[in-house]
Specification:
Helix content: 40-55%
Largest sheet: 7 strands, mixed
CATH class of the largest domain: Alpha Beta
CATH superfamily of the largest domain: Spore Coat Polysaccharide Biosynthesis Protein SpsA, Chain A
Strand order of the largest sheet: 3-2-1-4-6-5-7
CATH topology of the largest domain: Spore Coat Polysaccharide Biosynthesis Protein SpsA, Chain A
Structural class: alpha/beta
Number of strands: 7
Radius of gyration: 25 Å
CATH architecture of the largest domain: Alpha-Beta Complex
């Protein structure tokens, strides 16, 4: 029964066969010490090594361990989605399977959840697994952009109330912004410091190249959370800026032509016209998006996050 499971630990893994035995042993020890119903879910994201066999092996040692196998390598967001869908616990913990996150810190996350927070994210503040310059810069950018005061938005070590994982829809690489998505939906988000141990096996699959992709993901998250319900505000503003720029460029050229008696800068005149046309198209795109959203609203209204006040 779902009510018998208090804690679900979801671990997406990809080619982590060497880490699974130690990780499962440590997780089992921690979860048993909590003396509450629990489950440990390893989600194999289409690994090409012996990861799936390693999961089958550890399942024989602990009946609370389960394995999910994606048909192909589909990315971390899909692995999370599968794990969240299968999780039965009232609280869900996520962590990586490379032994850099310490299972022994799970009680600290649960204590923070007990304080009333809906999502608790880790902050890898120690120097043992040093952050790259791009990671530090990216986190500062996210903090300034989202106004969410956390230091490590990409830390995989997190704790969620069940309702959070059931209500958040994440795709692509947007899992990196789960704290911001939850915060913007009205959930209470907290951060705790966690140790960051060096990777014991294999090599990291991430590098500085993710910075540019992360920036575009941040723009996507901003649009989806801030403007999806009022797209005309986004497209209309962009159209107004572009159209106004084009209008003033052409106006300046026309005035200069009237004064000098000849029209020059034909390339700039053409640029102004193009900007005006693009601006008008943006405004009409915003109007179309508004109409589509209204139709969507009529089909099924999204229920906002709320809490019942008892007493």
């Amino acid at each position: 029964m779902a009510s018998e499971i208090h804690l679900s630990v979801v671990i997406p893994v990809y080619n982590e066969q060497e880490s699974i035995p130690e990780l499962s042993h440590r997780l089992t020890e921690v979860c048993r010490s909590l003396k509450k119903g629990h489950e440990i879910l390893f989600v194999d994201d289409g690994s090409s090594d012996g990861t799936l066999e390693a999961i089958r092996g550890v399942r024989k040692t602990d009946r609370n361990i389960a394995g999910l196998s994606l048909a192909k390598n589909s990315g971390k967001a899909n692995a999370y989605a599968a794990g969240f869908d299968a999780a039965r616990g009232e609280v869900v913990i996520t962590m990586d399977g490379d032994l850099q996150d310490r299972p022994e810190q799970i009680p600290e996350f649960l204590a923070k959840i007990d304080e009333g927070y809906d999502l608790v994210t880790g902050w890898k503040y120690t120097g043992k697994g040093k952050r790259t310059w791009s990671s530090r810069l990216f986190n500062r950018l996210v903090r300034a952009w989202t106004k969410l005061d956390i230091h490590d938005t990409n830390c995989p070590f997190k704790a969620y109330r069940r309702e959070v994982v059931k209500n958040l829809k994440v795709y692509g690489t947007l899992y990196r912004f789960i704290p911001a998505l939850a915060y913007w939906k009205g959930y209470r988000v907290a951060e705790i410091k966690v140790e960051n141990d060096p990777r014991k096996h294999g090599a990291t699959k991430y590098g500085p190249g993710r910075f540019l992709g992360g920036f575009f993901d941040l723009l996507t998250v901003t649009f989806l959370t801030q403007y999806i319900k009022r797209p005309l505000h986004f497209f209309g503003l962009a159209g107004l800026v572009l159209g106004s720029a084009g209008f003033f460029i052409d106006l300046a050229i026309v005035i200069k032509g009237l004064i000098s008696g000849r029209v020059g800068h034909q390339a700039m005149l053409l640029l102004g016209l193009v900007l005006i046309i693009i601006g008008v198209q943006f405004i009409f795109a915003g109007l179309l998006a508004e109409m589509l959203f209204r139709l969507y609203q009529e089909q099924g209204r999204e229920v906002p996050v709320y809490r019942r006040l008892d007493g």
